[in-house]
Design brief:
The structure is a homodimer. By secondary structure, chain A is α+β, with helices and mostly antiparallel strands. Chain A contains 12 helices and 15 strands. At the A-B interface, strand 5 and helix 4 of A face strand 5 and helix 4 of B.
Chain lengths: 453, 453
């Protein structure tokens, strides 16, 4: 029995019916051409037969004197953790997303290990899906994406059949950050540990406000994205061509990340105009970013960017340029700082938001309007046994006052967007997918015109 | 906007992740022989098109100064309330029950009207199912069963297509009791209103303890049925021939209700022996019973019986006789009392249990081990549009310390059992269905031997 670390305790305490604190992912697979009719049924049976459960998948919560501990689950119930569902005919992706939205809106059972896996058959065009959820107290979004990568194989073959709960635990199952919420973790830890360092860095940040490209907390406008949330979710997911995004980035002298922000900005702008709710001031996005070189894949040099989404600018090229400038500000600043300085500054900036979150009160000034989190993913095709993975989409957390979360992961030549939202606060949120696609078309056209002229 | 009545507030306040406070029902239908392949799809579309929402289906909760009110839902979202799901091939009843167990374990969204309907296609042998859930604050178990009866028709025909949320509200949508929990309602109300009357009747009850056939609260043994519960559920449902039960009742000079209790007793006895957990003292069941003549169907003359299930007796005939004596005690007593005296006595008996429940503490002495609730249902075949209903099964509430609830409803010649339990506290609870069937066989054999001799 081991005590639940203080930060994970926060995620447990933050959980309410309208604010489930689990992350997840949706993976789409192709049923192999030669598969029998009961292929998915057999696959579920085979998965359930893998009953050597590795930590942390075998641990459940136990409270002693009000203090939570992780303890072995002696009543482990495989049929509870691994479910077999199906879509109604003809199994449209729309129906898959509706089902997964419903599942992501339901709270995990605190009496059991805090994870569930759903194998969903009957997706149109001979596909099936796996939806997995993990409590954030067990695993953060990045770890979840890693786990969903680790059980897959680069070779197709029935002998490469592995399931997440049988993987040996990694030494760093919990990287020090994840989409948005991790800021709370480092903020909480470091604000407590390093008050002096944090305070001096806060002064640095304060001075920076004289820079016109500076975007920081407390600049975000009031927006319908920042309403109280209900307990029901809408998940929307789609992949967009990474090579197309690369070409656009090149044309504008921007990074892939800049273009991603520009796509999100254009889509949000249109959605908010649809609802007659576009704030006069630009939306602010909060981005957890890796500070490593592109080749590095491990470690925890992580920064936090408050990006100006420039949703007040109608022209797509100008909008992208404004976004790029606000991101570049942070890159320049981070370049001059040590890891320790950066982490301390992140702590100083995010601690107030974290404390607000904990106290359950809406901050008087909105720190940011939306979290956009981009996790690098595998470049090569992956297989679950002999089933090729066609796509994987991250599913994050919606919080009171943060009704939308945009998470991305790359896979092969696709950038896979997973949008999770409160379906009551943000009606017809799935329109954002269409708008993202059209924003990419528009940037391509704009780049083409610029090249022609 | 109207205030939520105090008793419904209790149901809202009792709700926790491991103790969802909704009731429900599962209905099984036959797809008509001439139906197109997308029959269920069309049916869902047609149901969703019925968008005139009658009270209470259009009301959601709203809190003002901590006080809950019912208010119109201006963001009504039909696709959220009416879901379309499917079973994996071949759609065994076992898979249907697993799916419905999962759905019954999930909390309703408090931001919306507190009901959900799931149309589930792909049940084997050309069947489909409808699972409906209502929060107990909106509707109790008996009202839920009534609603699930009212939208059906005694004639098959597509023109008889009605859905629960378009029915005009009934004058008495809330009868004053329901399976088990209603005792809390009348107890709370009347204990407050009539302390003197309740106290004097408590004395009557106290005297009654000298009667050897008397079974009352605080006689129940400690039992695995009375453990803390998790948030996960197991639903098991099956119908048994009402004529067979009638014949057994006749053979033993007992009522149908006595035989039902004997079947439950035999099944629980075997289950507890399987788990090496049969208490030395007999289990006590709590039964809400109507005090009306058989012909009456309305009104609120309701009694409360603590039945001795005689699980300590191995012989089935002797066990049935002991159960009958303990039930007869209450019938004799109720016959000599006015409605008011009965209601006040019920209040006096159930108030302590209710207060324990509210305070969230386990009572020092167990009042009863299990609730068994029997609601009379329709005798004639019923149809949803042109689909014949093959069975309907009630789904009640599991509480901390009450890990099993047995609810019954009659339909045509069947007595339909719906067993809902915490699947962690009561592993393999579904074995009770087999044991119920075998208990009926055994009583028939015993009756036959008695007739031969």
């Amino acid at each position: 029995m081991s005590i639940v670390d203080p930060v994970s305790q926060i995620f447990l305490r933050l959980e309410r019916r309208n604010q489930p604190m689990h992350v997840g992912g949706l993976q789409l697979f192709r049923v192999p051409g030669n598969a029998p009719a009961d292929y998915v049924h057999r696959l579920v049976d085979r998965a359930r037969a893998q009953n050597t459960i590795q930590p942390p998948f075998d641990k459940r919560l136990k409270y002693r004197l009000g203090q939570p501990f992780w303890t072995d689950d002696h009543g482990f119930d495989m049929e509870y953790h691994v479910r077999h569902l199906a879509l109604p005919e003809p199994g449209a992706i729309r129906d898959l997303l509706a089902l997964v939205s419903m599942l992501h809106g339901a709270l995990l059972d605190r009496a059991r290990p805090l994870w569930e896996v759903y194998v969903i058959e009957g997706v149109t065009d001979h596909r099936f899906a796996i939806y997995t959820k993990f409590h954030h107290a067990m695993m953060d979004g990045v770890s979840a994406m890693r786990v969903l990568r680790r059980f897959l194989s680069i070779d197709a073959g029935a002998e490469n059949f592995r399931v997440p709960w049988q993987l040996p635990p990694q030494s760093t199952t919990r990287p020090p950050w994840s989409a948005g919420l991790a800021m709370l973790r480092s903020g909480y830890r470091q604000a407590a540990a390093l008050p002096a360092a944090a305070r001096s860095l806060y002064d640095v940040w304060h001075d920076a406000r004289h820079d016109p490209d500076f975007t920081g907390p407390a600049q975000a406008p009031a927006c319908m994205l920042n309403r109280p949330v209900s307990g029901s979710r809408r998940f929307a997911a789609q992949g967009y061509s990474l090579s197309r995004i690369h070409r656009v980035a090149e044309a504008f002298g921007a990074t892939v990340n800049d273009v991603v922000l520009a796509l999100c900005s254009a889509a949000l702008r249109r959605y908010l105009i649809d609802h007659d709710a576009l704030p006069r001031d630009p939306l602010i996005a909060m981005l957890p970013v890796s500070l490593h070189d592109d080749d590095e894949t491990t470690g925890n040099r992580v920064g936090l960017i408050y990006a100006n989404l420039a949703t007040d600018i109608a022209d797509p090229a100008e909008r992208l340029a404004a976004i790029k400038r606000s991101v570049d500000y942070w890159k320049r600043r981070y370049k001059r700082m040590s890891s320790e300085q950066i982490m301390a500054m992140v702590a100083a900036m995010s601690a107030p938001a974290g404390l607000n979150l904990l106290a359950g009160i809406a901050p008087r000034r909105q720190s940011f309007n939306v979290v956009i989190s981009n996790v690098p993913g595998p470049n090569e095709a992956l297989y679950f046994g002999d089933a090729e993975m066609l796509g994987m989409y991250p599913m994050s957390i919606v919080l009171d006052g943060q009704a939308l979360n945009i998470s991305l992961v790359s896979y092969r030549d696709m950038l896979e967007f997973g949008l999770i939202a409160c379906r009551r606060a943000l009606p017809s949120m799935q329109n954002l997918l269409k708008y993202l696609g059209e924003a990419l078309d528009e940037l391509e056209r704009t780049a083409g015109r610029a090249a022609d002229s």
